[in-house]
Amino acid sequence: MTDKKHSPFSTELLSSAPTQTKMAAAEKELQKVHKKQQLTAAKQQKKQKVEQQIASVGKPFWWMMAMFICSLVYLFPEAVFNAALTEVAGGRNSSHDDLRAVELFGRTISGIGVTLLLADMLLTGKRVARVGRALGYFSLIALLVWPTVFFGQKWLVDHFIIDASTPEERQQAYLSQVLRSALIEKSIQFEGINYDPDKAHSGTEKTFLSVFGGLVYADDKLVDDLSQKKRMIMEKFVRDKAMSSFDSHYQDYNQFRQTLRGKYQAYADGSAKYNQTLASAPERSDEYWLDTQNQVEQGWGKYQKGVTAYEARVESRAQKIAPKIHDYFERRNHCADKKKGNSRDRCFKRLQDGYDREIKKYSIPYIPPDDWLIREEISTSENVGNSIIAGVMTFGLFTAMQAVDAATGGDAGFKDHRMVYTNDVNHYKRILMLKMEPDFIKESGGYPLGITSLHTFRVHELTSIKVNKKLKQKGLTLPTAWSITDRRTFDKAVANKVRQQADIKWRENMRAKNTNMAPNLSWKQFQRHSDIQHHIAKRMGDLYVNPTLADWNNRQFKQQIIEPNIQRKTTEYLNVLEAQKAQFADGGAFESTGKSALRATIIPPISMSISLALVLLTVLKLPMKLVELVQAKQTKLMDKKPRKPYLKPAITMTLLASIFILPMSIGDNEYTMEDSAMNYFFEQMEKNDSASISFALKWLLVTQPLVQPIGSAIDETLAITQGFNAVSAPLNRFDLAVLPEHETKKQTVKSDSAKPTLKLPLTINTNVANAKISVMNIKPKYQPGMLLPPGGYDIKVSAPGHQDVRQWVYLKAEKINLTSSFNL
């Protein structure tokens, strides 16, 4: 071993059994086992801690933390909804759509709040021992509770408050809303109520306006007293409201009429272009006429080229066929002179067959052989001379036969002509020119041979037909029998085409602007056109008076627009207020109006009170939840302190007292002080056995102004309502799909058996007898006095020789019978 050489035994042992490697692997396995045991121990310890927390407080710490965070987050949108509801319900110009939007927001938040509340109450013990199980139960509660609360609120309100209301309550609610509006416009004043609509509205004023309608609605005596003066109140209210907005209305009208003048200028420019197009008809006619003459000249050139080509083709064939035909006649004479009997007949047939074959080679119409012969006239002297010679040569026999033939009525051998043949090519060319003329006519499009001048070609009947066909392809319509020499008819056709094109382009431009206006209307006619009036009506809304002109000054605007609207609105209000109570019942003419007023009167104070209570309750519960979190975190496994069953009820009572009693003891505002005139309304409520409602409204008037600014500040910082508005459209569609709007649903159910009070008669009078009247936006044909539901109807009146008149006519519930007059 001194020479440091390995033992053969140890070397073989190390190479066959690597002990060190196995020991390292075993050590790693041991570490894995230790880690697994540590993890198991940690899980067991964590499980024991959770079980300890559940045994101590009923819930694990992580679940309590989650509920605390959710409650804290929920507080922000709930406070924002409370502030938004105050803005809408206490706003001066809030609409039904505004109330609908904030109601949707509130129902969404309420569903979330109730879901969190029930989850916090129901999910305890083993249900929240594990995260997966807790989230599963929470999801189940959310799927059940949120839709129930979201849709249930709407159904409960409609079913138990709106649908269950009496006609008297609906009419009284409408009056309370009118009086609220009159108070805003300072048309009425209540002694002791120092409400100033002109100053900036704080949370106090907005809360006051939110509950004022409900206070008036609950006071039957006040409603009866004010009903005696409702006509005076309505007239003053409508006039005050109209005049308070007169400057803004006239400014809007002034801006609109400037826009309308700009549109008329554009319309006038279009009319000028239209007129210029019509005035260009003579120039267009000259262009068409020049094009026509060029077409004729081109046709004449083609004809001449065709004639030249035809003559060359005939010349070529004549040169080829002349010797053939000459040879044919030579052979035929030979057959006639040398052959006799059947032999001559066979000779003739053989020659005829050869002739037929030869003619087919030249692609020409069949020409009988004798047509190639030349007629040669025979003079009398030649006949006499030939007769004498023949008589001498026959020793008088021929002369004797002539005499016999003449005696029997014959020609005595005298002939006036004879048929001869020739080898002159020009003769055959002349024959072919005539025989092949049909081919030329076909090639030339119908023109015959023999046209020798442009004038003859131009006045040819076929030229007029061809030119007419070409012009028709270009959209120029001429009579079938038109001749190219008739320039007057041609000019008239061009003028018609120019007008037609101008009309098409004009209609396209008008269609692009959603109108069917004719050109060249004056400014006065333009304003009174039905499409312009319809556009004005859309822009002016309820202020529209037919017709509304765009050149009135402020005095005329007041006389023509404001005053009629004051009378109309006053009549509308009075018709509702003075209507029979039965008309506010289900199916009555004012059912929808009464229910909307009742909703706007009752629902905002109720929703605002509940929302305010939830906000305050959540705020006061958060510290208690925080304390529970701290206690749960500090709980030891062996700590098992006895529970105090009276503690939670005591805390609950303390919270309720803090919410409903503490604000009332802190102080009042100008509307809740004992010497305030508002105390009259609260006293009347208490007399009507509504002490709890009186206390709730007074509490709301005191507490809401303290909380509302906080919600507004949160919304300005976090833009919660803005974010909700971005996703409210699909939620709104979902809501309407499940529970349609109350009024829409009612009208749909009753549409098949609608009462006569829901349909109004319509009669259209015209200044032209037998004028045609059409209602463009419905299917039923117009009949005088026809019954139609309230709404807008597009009326078109037309008569021969008059320009069509088209405008919208509006049927309204307050107008028992509408008769409109149209002047053509």
SSE blueprint and pairings:
Layout: H1 8-16, H2 19-57, H3 61-89, H4 96-122, H5 131-162, H6 167-184, H7 203-218, H8 220-227, H9 230-244, H10 246-279, H11 281-338, H12 341-360, E1 374-377, H13 380-393, H14 397-407, E2 417-420, H15 425-435, H16 437-443, H17 454-458, H18 461-473, H19 487-512, H20 523-528, H21 530-540, H22 554-577, H23 591-634, H24 647-660, H25 662-666, H26 678-687, H27 691-718, H28 720-738, H29 742-749, E3 760-766, E4 772-775, E5 786-788, E6 791-798, E7 805-811, E8 818-822
Parallel strand pairs: 3-8
Antiparallel strand pairs: 1-2, 3-5, 4-6, 6-7
Helix pairs in contact: 3-4, 3-7, 3-23, 3-27, 4-5, 6-7, 6-9, 6-23, 7-23, 7-27, 9-22, 10-19, 11-12, 11-15, 11-19, 13-14, 23-24, 23-27, 26-27
What does this structure look like?
This protein is 68% helix and 5% strand. It is built from 29 helices and eight strands. It is mainly alpha-helical.
Task: Provide a brief overview of the structure.
The chain has helices at 8-16, 19-57, 61-89, 96-122, 131-162, 167-184, 203-218, 220-227, 230-244, 246-279, 281-338, 341-360, 380-393, 397-407, 425-435, 437-443, 454-458, 461-473, 487-512, 523-528, 530-540, 554-577, 591-634, 647-660, 662-666, 678-687, 691-718, 720-738, 742-749, and strands at 374-377, 417-420, 760-766, 772-775, 786-788, 791-798, 805-811, 818-822.
